[in-house]
Amino acid sequence: MSKKWRPATQLVHGGTLRSQYGEVSEAIFLTQGFVYDNSAAAEARFKGEDDGFIYARYGSPTNDMFEKRMCMLEGAEDARATASGMAAITAAIMCQLKTGDHIVAARALFGSCRWVVETLAPRYGIDCTLVDGRDLANWEEAIRPNTKVFFLESPTNPTLEVVDIAAVARLADQAGATLVVDNVFATPLFQKPLELGAHVVVYSATKHIDGQGRCLGGVVLSNKEWIDENLHDYFRHSGPAMSPFNAWTLLKGIETLPLRVKQQTENAARIADLLADSGKVARVIYPGRADHPQASIIAKQMTGGSTLVAFEMKGGKDAAFALQDALDVVTISNNLGDAKSLITHPATTTHKNLSDEARAELGITDGTVRLSCGIEDGDDLLEDFARALDVLKA
Questions:
Q1: Is 128 in contact with 102 (CB distance < 8 Å)?
Q2: How far is CA 63 from CA 7, 60, 246, 266, 337, in A?
Q3: CB within 8 Å of 343: residues ≥ 6 apart
Q4: Cβ(101)–Cβ(146) below 8 Å
Q5: Is omega for the bond preceding 158 within 30 degrees of 0, making it cis?
Q6: pLDDT for 164
Q7: Strands lying side by side in the sheet with 368-372
Q8: Per-residue pLDDT for 1 more than 50?
Q9: Which residue ranges form the domains of the chain, and what is each CATH number?
Q10: Which DSSP letter does residue 334 get?
């Protein structure tokens, strides 16, 4: 396989492994186990002297194709596909920690991610410090002699804050810690955390990578040494493996990733401008706009805006609900990255389990709305929002 292929080509052809039948579309290998020519071959496989497959929990040809394709796109040496995005995040963090270790994490995290570092990890004697990730000094002040992991998402869910990944990576190197970056909102097309110095990148493949609301999936990417020393045994023995059927579905989805993200981003930029000019929105946060609070960092580390828009309705929860309910084309759902435009109210859905104080720290108000733009005709989306905004009282 040529490693000089551009992303759109990688995502169609990367990692393809054809059977003896020479199929065009990747094959789905729905099997738990694999057979061996003889006893010595089985022994060699289990000793690692033969690179073949052993058991579907460890890997399969379909999963292997998905992992290799993601490695090509991300610029990683190795990867493991998981059953969900949260399985990927939990594995990436917990596989390298033990009792007495310490995590420093940006406080602006998806609710389940905060649960992993704030609730699950401490049950095993692993401390966690949450910081405002936008200020580098906060990361530096939180470092302890036992700090082993830095964790962040950028842009963040749902308020689209941006963290200076390269600067945090330098601090992690100085502390001897591993920087894990959740890159879902940027997608691998607009941001390359490994190139910025991160050590591990995780994705919920459920989002843009599938992009059509069909299945769950996740993936952890890093260099081969880190995978072998940290994730390999954890992955095999704890069993977060992706279904081969889901891996095949994601292989089909990823072929169209550049096309979908391009249209989604164009739609998001247009709607962000419409909302900003509507007079009914207190603020709009979109990484493609010059008024984004971290616009200078975005210019350094992202090559595109985002498929998502965060905004705060004047009138709080009532106005947010009224807008969502008045939309016709856009669907109310807590998923994102879909071909369909989806909208949600974080305070009552994705971040409802956070305390009022925690939501306030993150800038999530009763009026905050998160929009994930789809691939619909942009004019239809603009007309949908214009009509819904007109329904609201001035």
A1: yes
A2: 19, 5, 9, 32, 22
A3: 324, 327, 330, 331, 332, 333, 369, 370, 371, 372
A4: yes
A5: yes
A6: 98
A7: 281-285, 308-313, 368-372, 342-344, 331-332
A8: no
A9: 7-253 (3.40.640.10), 257-391 (3.90.1150.10)
A10: S
Residues composing the chain: 394
Number of H helices, E strands in the chain: 17, 12
Tell if the pTM clears 0.70, that is, is over it.
yes
* DSSP letter, residue 101: -
| Dihedral angle over CA of 96, 100, 103, 104, nearest 10 | -150
Q: Give CA–CA dist 129/142, Å, rounded.
A: 7
Q: Find tokens 């502390």 and name the residue.
A: 175
Phi, psi of 14 (to 5 degrees): -60, 135
The half-sphere exposure of 160 on its side-chain side, counting CA atoms within 13 A, is 30
In angstroms, the CA 18 to CA 60 distance is 13
Question: CB–CB of 216/209 below 8 Å?
Answer: no
Contact criterion met (CB below 8 Å) for 157 and 89: no
Q: What does the alpha-carbon distance between residue 127 and residue 36 come to, in Å, rounded to a whole number?
A: 45
Read out DSSP for 125-187?
T-EEEEE-TT-HHHHHHH--TTEEEEEEESS-TTT-----HHHHHHHHHHHT-EEEEE-TTTH
d(CA 162, CA 65): 32
SS3 75: coil
3-state secondary structure at position 281: strand
Q: Is 208 helix (H, G, I), strand (E, B) or coil?
A: coil
- 148-199 pLDDT, tens digit per residue, is 999 999 999 999 999 999 999 999 999 999 999 999 999 999 999 999 999 9
Does position 281 have pLDDT exceeding 70, yes or no?
yes
Three-state SS for 388? Answer: helix
CB 218 within 8 A of CB 191: no
Rounded CA-CA distance 183/134 in Å is: 16
Residue found under tokens 């394709």: 69
Q: Are 253 and 212 in contact (CB under 8 A)?
A: yes
Q: What angle, 0 to 180 degrees and rounded to 10, lies between the N-to-C axes of helices 61-74 and 244-254? A: 40
